[in-house]
């Protein structure tokens, strides 16, 4: 936490509470959807693809006198590549620093191999442990009770919540209970701030989400987006230039599409959402560059907010 955020008072004077809740779980458990619901605005990119969240994203929610800072971590999985290792390290780093750690579980998968590995390591985390069973609208109620019992037999969770992040079921109750767990103290952020991600990086994440949505499996995890130029224009609009880095010439052709149609569609969708997020008109210009070894370049990791694994 940077020093300039530590001393912002808020939230009803003496009664104020403030703390961190890390959301952890296997890929595609629904962490990004949940954090957006908890905050009430889009702060984390959502995709059907696993492992779209790469670095820790912080979303800030107000509940009564409490300010809750939710840390959406990358999904925890068995890492194979350098980027994978950096993402998993980031996820556990987020859990280690939090006042409470919420393990999000997909009700359809229950206690599978991915979650087993997380449970084993979660036992050593000192923070309050919260079990959140997500996607409850996809299974029968008796199965939900079995899943809750199974997990609580394995690890003593302080609270268990059953929710549907997508539909919003149970999310308000969860937010109220988490607020009560936060330690007394002044708020870290101004009341109207919903994320600590700079707008430049949120804009890059939005464009990356549109690439995922548009290209599905054609372009696997071989792309990253960086915001190069952010210029406030005299008319109140913003000119944004971004570079999409890919690893192969073939990937560049996929992103551009025939006659530039694909990149135009990505740009249109991203511009609309960026404009909504920053509440300003945005002019977005996208460029595609081939950088074969970007996944081994420490500078790209810094841009993503990740530590470069040796």
Automatic annotation (TrEMBL):
Region (G2): 51-55
Domain annotation Era-type G: ranges: 17-184
Keyword Cell membrane belongs to the record: yes
Location of the KH type-2 domain: 215-292
Region span, G5: 163-165
Single GO term (MF): GTPase activity
Binding residue positions for GTP: 25-32, 72-76, 134-137
Membrane topology of this protein: Peripheral membrane protein
Annotated region described as G1, given as residue ranges: 25-32
CDD domains linked: Era, KH-II_Era
Main location: cytoplasm
GO terms, biological process: ribosomal small subunit assembly
InterPro entries (UniProt xref): G_ERA_dom (IPR030388), GTP-bd (IPR006073), GTPase_Era-like (IPR005662), KH_dom-like_a/b (IPR015946), KH_dom_type_2 (IPR004044), KH_sf_prok-type (IPR009019), P-loop_NTPase (IPR027417), Small_GTP-bd (IPR005225)
Entry GO CC: cytosol; plasma membrane
Location of the region described as G3 in the Swiss-Prot/TrEMBL record: 72-75
Protein location: Cytoplasm; Cell inner membrane
Stretches for region G4: 134-137
Pfam families linked: KH_2, MMR_HSR1
Keywords: Cell inner membrane, Cell membrane, Cytoplasm, GTP-binding, Membrane, Nucleotide-binding, Ribosome biogenesis, RNA-binding, rRNA-binding
Family as reported in the entry's similarity comment: Belongs to the TRAFAC class TrmE-Era-EngA-EngB-Septin-like GTPase superfamily. Era GTPase family.
NCBIfam families: era, PRK00089.1, small_GTP
Role according to the record: An essential GTPase that binds both GDP and GTP, with rapid nucleotide exchange. Plays a role in 16S rRNA processing and 30S ribosomal subunit biogenesis and possibly also in cell cycle regulation and energy metabolism.
Oligomer status and interactors: Monomer.
Family matches, as HAMAP family: GTPase_Era
Protein name: GTPase Era
Name of the encoding gene: era
């Amino acid at each position: 936490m940077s020093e300039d955020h530590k001393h912002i008072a808020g939230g009803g004077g003496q009664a104020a509470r403030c703390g961190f809740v890390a959301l952890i779980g296997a890929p595609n458990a629904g962490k990004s959807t949940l954090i957006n619901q908890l905050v009430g605005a889009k702060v984390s990119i959502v995709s059907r693809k696993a492992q779209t969240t790469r670095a820790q994203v912080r979303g800030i929610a107000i509940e009564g006198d409490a300010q809750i800072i939710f840390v959406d971590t990358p999904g925890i999985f068995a890492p194979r590549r350098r980027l994978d290792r950096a993402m998993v390290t980031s996820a556990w780093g987020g859990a280690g620093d939090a006042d409470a750690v919420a393990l999000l579980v997909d009700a359809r998968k229950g206690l599978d191999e991915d979650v087993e590995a997380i449970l084993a390591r979660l036992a050593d985390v000192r923070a309050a442990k919260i079990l959140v069973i997500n996607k409850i609208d996809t299974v029968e109620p008796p199965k939900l009770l079995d899943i809750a019992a199974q997990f609580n037999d394995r690890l003593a969770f302080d609270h268990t919540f059953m929710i549907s992040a997508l539909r919003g079921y149970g999310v308000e109750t969860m937010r109220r209970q988490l607020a009560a767990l936060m330690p007394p103290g002044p708020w870290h952020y101004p009341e109207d701030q919903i994320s600590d991600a700079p707008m430049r990086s949120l804009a890059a994440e939005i464009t990356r989400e549109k690439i995922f949505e548009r290209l599905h499996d054609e372009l696997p995890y071989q792309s990253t987006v960086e915001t190069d130029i952010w210029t406030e224009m005299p008319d109140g609009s913003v000119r944004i230039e971004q570079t999409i880095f890919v690893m192969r010439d073939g990937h560049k052709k996929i992103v551009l599409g025939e006659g530039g149609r694909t990149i135009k569609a990505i740009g249109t969708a991203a511009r609309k959402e960026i404009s909504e997020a920053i509440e300003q008109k945005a002019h977005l210009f996208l460029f595609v560059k081939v950088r074969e070894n970007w996944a081994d370049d420490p500078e790209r990791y810094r841009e993503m907010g990740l530590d470069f694994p040796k």
